[in-house]
Amino acid sequence: MVDRRQEIIDAALAIADESGLDAISMRAVAERVGVTPMALYPHIGNKDGLLDAMIGHSLGSLPMPAPDQPWQQRLRVFAYAIRALAHRHPGYLELVFSRPAVTKDAVRAIDAIFGALLDAGVPPSEVARVERLTSTAIIGFAMSEVNGRFAAARQPPSVRAEWASAGELPAHHRLRPHLDKKVDWDAEFEADLTDLAAMIESIAQRSVR
């Protein structure tokens, strides 16, 4: 038996991958599935329901680390899963970045992060804020990696700053020997996760002083 709801979500994901989020409409999804737009509503609701379902499906498909793993490892599993998701579906990752998690699967994923932060010793009053900070850093890296911000520019950073004197762009001139180095994005992602973990530990330690 066809799971029509899942078929609709898969069609929307495919459209986003092929043409971006702006191409998603109830009509476009219906055409992809082979039904009328009105036939989508009993399964998915309106377009907001469709977008929420896409987020829920994607976050719900992430591997959930075992709750008995160290909190650092649980966050690392989440981070690498988000990065892999970005590479699988670069056309719609912005959706995860721009809409709240409201479906059951999405909320379960957020709850796993909450649990890791609590086990790290982050005060309950700070957990939601630290989750937002951590998730934004991870998703932002993944978006930048797949959607072009980290891509090689037409000119290296040092050349882009040549129009200005050291007095106008002092930091660029001080960093000139470092700006044009080839970046190992795998190593940078790992370093960022290490720094995020250190930040979380510092927040936890601050709370017990």
Automatic annotation (TrEMBL):
Keywords, ordered alphabetically: DNA-binding, Transcription, Transcription regulation
Domain of life: Bacteria
Pfam families tied to this protein: TetR_C_33, TetR_N
Domain HTH tetR-type intervals: 2-62
Residues of the DNA-binding region: 25-44
Keyword Transcription: yes
PANTHER family, sorted: HTH-TYPE TRANSCRIPTIONAL REGULATOR RUTR, TRANSCRIPTIONAL REGULATORY PROTEIN
Name used for this protein in its record: TetR/AcrR family transcriptional regulator C-terminal domain-containing protein
Species of provenance: Fodinicola feengrottensis
